[in-house]
Amino acid sequence: MIDFLSPKPDGVYIDGTVGLGGHSAAILEASAPNGRVIGIDLDVEALTIAKSRLHVFGERSSLISGNFAEMDVLLETKHSIHAVDGILLDLGVSSLQLDTPQRGFSFNHTGPLDMRMNNSQQSALSRRSPTRGLRRGQQQTPKQKHATLSETSLLTAESHTQKTELTAMQVVNNSPMEALVDIFKRYGEERFAKRIAHRIIQERKETPIVTTTQLAEIVKQAVPKGVSKIHPATRVFQALRIHINAELENLAMGLDAAISLLKPDGCLCVIAFHSLEDRIVKHCFQKCARACICPPKTPICICEHSASLEILTKRPILPNAAEVQHNPRARSAKLRVARKL
Q1: pTM, entire model
Q2: 203: pLDDT strictly greater than 70
Q3: I need a labelling partner for 70 at 20 to 30 A (CA). Which of 88, 92, 255, 317 fits?
């Protein structure tokens, strides 16, 4: 990743998912003596740890509590910066979040069903206009205007305006079966979505589902034994997390913001951990690398589109054996890189 970014000694770089600061530290070391890194993260706890780790770099390191989906706005308002030399996005849930039972991300520990990346402020989506995302001239439906908690789960990601106050516990206990099935299929690609949703509905009639291990056991009972090498609850937990945090829409917004911020020759490095994320990154890069985006049968180009990126990784780069041995959670990581034209 550092090789692609090729940090310059006076460059400005964004770590859009700073986490505990490991990537930021590497960029700062490679961009000495004057390179700057601006780290962004929703997780306040992670930012506290990153601040302690990066303090040795002094003013070369800056941290912002926020969503990388709004990195262009954050950089303008916080630092009056309108262009940068490179951007890194390391997507998904962090080891800190997975290993902290109180955050509710993992079924390996008993904890409350929370799953919010940030439990202290609203997400980027909650600050958006309720009508943003509608096509021009399209009006909100009464259902969208007056959506209840359970009805919200049925809305598409394009019109979703959830807040980070929405937890996995609320979704699991209040959403109708159709909404649960949609979430599990859309964000977890779970083939037993109906069976799992039905079992959840039956169980919550008897007692509320409030812990991670409680939900994991319900899912385990609903799924046929021996059909998968992974834990039966893996896809359900992924789906709930993505839904709660609007991860896929935030990713799409973040890619647009990143491309607009990059200086010519600046690189955008994105590390994805599942097919849904990777597909969005791949399609975004492909679209931005094309000179024409007219439908295939259009005889003459009328789109006036021009390529803004050059894809540097024709196929995603996968971790090698040594990297997986050092960090087993990196085994599913896929790195894609593009350069701004």
Answers
A1: 0.86
A2: yes
A3: 317
